[in-house]
Amino acid sequence: MIETRQITKSLGDKLVLRGVDLSVKRGEAVALLGSNGAGKSTWLKIAAGLLQPTSGEVVINSQVMKKEDYTNRKLIGYLGHRSFLYEAFTSIENLQFFARLYNIANPDERINHLIDAVGLSFFKHEPVRLFSRGMIQRLAIARSLLHDPEILLLDEPHTGLDQQGVAFLNELLLKLKTIGVTLIMVTHDFYQINGVCDRAVVLKKGKISQDENIVGRPVEWIQTLYAGKEITC
């Protein structure tokens, strides 16, 4: 579904990514782990087409993604550290704006469905500047799903969410998996990936150091994988 081949990225005189080969199948959920500065967010931005690699290529459905490849980019939903929301707009106005960017015809039903799905139905006409951090995150999740993407790239998606929000997000991600959406999630929260993700990929100093199936594994096993220690079955 999506893969990166020998991706490198230099920022100034620092080599952030060092030949990352990663392939994720349709409907698979992968957690991208690593310490701060390991290159996780940089890889995610390159996979989303928001950042150009220094070398290497991104491949979606066996097609190399080019700089002006808007067809394949429409297959991708991206949730980063920035919400990309406009504070003066309401929830509905924000999603209407992005619907126009994606050329979504008659988006009102989709917009209202997503606002209800993320638990903001009572705030759909309130400006985002009045929202809490968790409410902004919920609306940003709705924004990333607006165009019904086949690939969802998430950078620490549980940030700012309360327990109810975390449970809602995990339930939503599991539903997306059942319909074949491919998920790649950058996170430091081992407990949240344990029930959602199929694989854990650990980046260390810009390279993949571990790539393991985590289905049925306890959280402690994932922590050991992250730490790079010898693991036993």
UniProtKB/TrEMBL annotation:
GO terms for biological process: cytochrome complex assembly. Residues 2-230 form the ABC transporter domain. Pfam families: ABC_tran. One of its GO terms (molecular function) is ATP hydrolysis activity. Keywords: ATP-binding, Cytochrome c-type biogenesis, Nucleotide-binding, Transport. It comes from the Bacteria. InterPro entries: AAA+_ATPase, ABC_transporter-like_ATP-bd, ABC_Transporter_VariousFunc, ABC_transptr_haem_export_CcmA, P-loop_NTPase. PANTHER family: ABC TRANSPORTER ATP-BINDING PROTEIN ALBC-RELATED. This is Heme ABC exporter ATP-binding protein CcmA.
